[in-house]
Inverse folding.
C-alpha cells in the first residue's frame, strides 16, 4: 500500500497538467471558428503544461526526490512522459506563434504508434511486474492514446473533423488524466 501511494504521489501532478492541457486543446478544437477560444491562450496552457510534464518526469525519476519513484515502471513511464511533454510543448509553441498545426500531423501519428508499442508491452509484461490488475488500466490508457494521437494527427492533416478531435481530446482528458489523478490524490487507490 505504501508503494502504491508513493507511485500515486509521483504521478498526480503530471496527470493534472495533462488534464489541463487536453481540456484546453479540446476546447480549442471544439471551436473551429476560433471566436471563443484564443490560440495564444491555448498555446500558453499547452507549453506550460508540456514543460511541467517534463519537469515532473525528471522529479519522479530522481531517486533523491521527496516524491519517490514509480517503482519498476519508472523508466517506461518516463519515456512516455517526456514524449508527450515535448509534443504538448511543441503544439503550444506553434499555437502561440500562430503557425499551422499540420506540420505536427505525422509526428502525432508516430507518437500514437509509439504509444501502441507501450500498450502491447503493458499487456505482455506489466502483469508480471505489477501485482494485481493495475496494469490493465495502464494498458487501456495507452490504447486510448494510440487512438487519440491518430485522430489528432489526421485532424491536423484535414482528414478528420476538428470538432470530433476536440471531443475525443476532452474524453481522453477525463479518462486518462483527470479521473485517475483525482483517485490517486484522494488516496482511494492506485489506478
Amino acid at each position: 500500500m505504501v508503494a502504491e501511494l508513493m507511485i500515486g504521489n509521483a504521478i498526480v501532478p503530471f496527470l493534472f497538467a495533462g488534464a489541463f492541457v487536453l481540456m484546453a486543446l479540446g476546447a480549442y478544437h471544439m471551436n473551429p471558428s476560433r471566436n471563443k477560444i484564443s490560440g495564444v491562450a491555448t498555446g500558453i496552457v499547452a507549453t506550460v503544461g508540456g514543460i511541467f510534464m517534463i519537469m515532473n518526469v525528471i522529479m519522479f525519476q530522481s531517486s533523491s526526490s521527496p516524491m519517490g519513484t514509480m517503482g519498476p515502471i519508472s523508466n517506461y513511464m518516463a519515456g512516455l512522459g517526456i514524449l508527450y511533454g515535448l509534443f504538448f510543448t511543441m503544439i503550444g509553441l506553434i499555437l502561440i506563434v500562430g503557425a499551422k498545426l499540420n506540420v505536427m500531423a505525422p509526428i502525432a501519428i508516430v507518437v500514437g504508434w509509439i504509444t501502441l508499442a507501450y500498450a502491447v508491452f503493458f499487456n505482455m509484461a506489466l502483469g508480471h511486474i505489477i501485482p494485481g490488475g493495475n496494469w490493465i488500466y495502464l494498458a487501456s490508457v495507452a490504447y486510448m492514446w494510440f487512438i487519440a494521437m491518430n485522430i489528432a494527427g489526421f485532424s491536423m492533416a484535414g482528414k478528420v473533423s476538428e470538432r470530433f478531435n476536440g471531443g475525443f481530446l476532452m474524453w481522453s482528458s477525463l479518462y486518462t488524466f483527470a479521473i485517475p489523478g483525482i483517485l490517486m490524490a484522494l488516496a482511494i487507490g492506485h489506478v
In short: The chain has one domain: 2-185. Confidence is low (pLDDT under 50) at residues 1-6. The radius of gyration is 16 Å. Helices lie at 2-30, 39-61, 74-97, 105-129, 134-156, 162-185.
